[in-house]
Amino acid sequence: MRFKHLFGPVKSRRLGISLGIDLVPHKTCNLNCVYCECGKTTNFTGCRKEYVSVKEVFSELDEYLGQHPVLDYITFSGAGEPMLHSKIGKISGYIKKKFPEYKLALITNGTLFSYRRMRQEAAKMDIILPSLDAVSMPVFKKINRPCPGILPDKIISGLIRLRQEFKGGIWLEIFIIPGLNDTPSELGLIKNSILKINPDKIQLNALDRPGTVRGLIKASSYKLKSIAKYFGEKSEIIAAPEIKLRAKADRNNFEKLVFGTLCRRPSTIRDLSVISGVEEVKIKKYLISLRKTVKIDVTRMKRGNFYKIVK
Ligand code: SF4
Fold it and tell me: Is the CB–ligand 1 distance for residue 28 below 6 Å?
């Protein structure tokens, strides 16, 4: 693999052609969400530090962005919580200074914005996509399983502050899990919080890949539609069963993209075909050859077999 910290570009449901930057090792997070597509949190921590070398990230960015690729966003995301990297503000500032033509997105669990410093570090982003899956403590604990000291009230007040100070867009993601956060009382609490936070968009998501806990139910599109209606006109459903657009990826380099994707999240052959723009038959052949050198887990779900590289 030529790049250790850059990932893709992939065709993202929300962000178009998106180059990922992965700033923490798999799987470093201050939450351990039941639905996490990256797997169980193995480094369960609230500690911020330079998990990956900033120098290395700068050098990869210089090499990749120096070729002037066409991208809709450069996205801080990956196999953990990117805000735990202590130099994320420095990295976003570097991109904005050296490559101002690119827009930056931050996919975050939103748990750290009660700290002024965290809001300042995210200030250079063009959009922030934080999560809020629960407001009551029992449901928050069941879904997000936080590190000690992370409280829903604090997250919400942090997001309200972020909205007041941040100039870019805020797209609030809510992951709906039937039986956990779809009760009238929890949805009512979430709606009240949405009104206070005032995000630009409310994006409803549902289980699309294997989570970390068996037996989770995927919210039906009927349920998602009725919740979207209840949350109001800014709501949209992002849990699409299928992505229709094909990425204009570098077809000669698809193996690198497929490998990088399978290290981070379980995917079907169809998913891999969509993000790479390469025929499913070619992906299948590549997976057969890949299995000779790395261990690949397969999980059967309604949407098909999900493959993931086991590290
Ligand atoms: S979904 Fe996000 S916040 Fe939750 S455990 Fe996974 S990486 Fe962490």
Answer: no
Beta carbon of 80 within 6 Å of any ligand 1 atom: yes
In this prediction the pTM is 0.84
- Measured in whole angstroms, the distance separating CA 119 from the mean position of its chain's CA atoms is 19
Mean pLDDT value of segment 139-149: 97
238-290 confidence digits (pLDDT tens): 986 544 444 454 556 788 888 888 887 788 888 888 777 788 888 888 888 88
Please give the C-alpha separations between residue 263 and each of 216, 280, 289, in angstroms, as whole numbers.
22, 19, 16
Same domain as 230, residue 265: no
- The CATH number for 268's domain is 1.10.10.10
Which mutation among 26, 81, 107 tests ligand 1's pocket best, with the greatest number of atoms within 8 A of CB? 81
Residue 1 in any domain: the answer is: no
Predicted pLDDT at 244: 43
**Residue 176 sits in the same domain as residue 266:** no
| Residue that terminates a domain, selected from 241, 265, 299 | 241
